[in-house]
Amino acid sequence: CFVCGRMGAAITCSMSGCSRSFHLPCASQGECVTQYCGLYRSFCWEHHPQQSLQARSKQKRTCSICLETLDNERAFKIIVCPACQDAWFHRSCIQKQTLHAGISFCCPCCQNKEPFVLATLNMGIRLSKRPPSWESDRHWRLEDQRHCHCDASTCLCPGGREQVEEEGLWELLLCFSCAAEGTHRGCSHLTVSAHWECNSC
Can you quote a single GO CC term (predicted)? Predict the structure, then answer.
């Protein structure tokens, strides 16, 4: 392996005349690209495909996912959306995005699919063929994301802080401003039409 120097490197650069070999785990460190589509070709740091990075003068680019500054000189670590040209990403950030987005993967900025996906495949980003993580979680429900217990200093509900009813004394009211805390109507002595705000708000 030209990256780590150890034996057993099974991947050879697809460029004719190039004899560089490397291990798959060493590919990223050695700036090698393996294309997970078509002929499944691999390329060393010298022969891998590159995108043209046209940095605007004196303008620092940031990754549109992690918002950290990008180094324009290290083209291997940067992926650019060919559709909008304004969306620049760290290679590692886009790879993580593909794992979550699955078959819904597209440019996070302009929502472009075909040119963006083709560009990422060409640059060695591995796509996932599963449904998006936010749809495949069987336990995810909208109500699971809602605050669902009483935060009153003294909860008066006989069933405890977790008991919630549709109406009446044990109806759970969320803070009118932040919705991050809640109280039973009876625990805060609230009328039917009253709004409630937590102490933080």
Answer: nucleus
- Total domains, the chain: 3
Per-residue pLDDT, 57: 47
Q: Are residues 103 and 140 in the same domain?
A: yes
Question: Which amino acid is located at 95 in the chain?
Answer: Q
CA separation for the pair 65, 38 (Å, rounded) = 28
Q: Report pLDDT for 41.
A: 93
Residue of 112, 115, 77, 109 lying closest to 95 (CA atoms): 77
CA pseudo-torsion sign 60, 64, 65, 71: negative
Assess whether 62 and 132 both reside in one domain.
yes
Of 143, 155, 158, give the one whose Cα is nearest residue 182: 155
Q: For residues 49 and 35, what is the distance between their CA atoms, to the nearest angstrom?
A: 10
Count CB neighbours of 187 within 10 A. Answer: 22
Distance, in Å, from the CA atom of 24 to the CA atom of 22, rounded to the nearest integer, reads 6
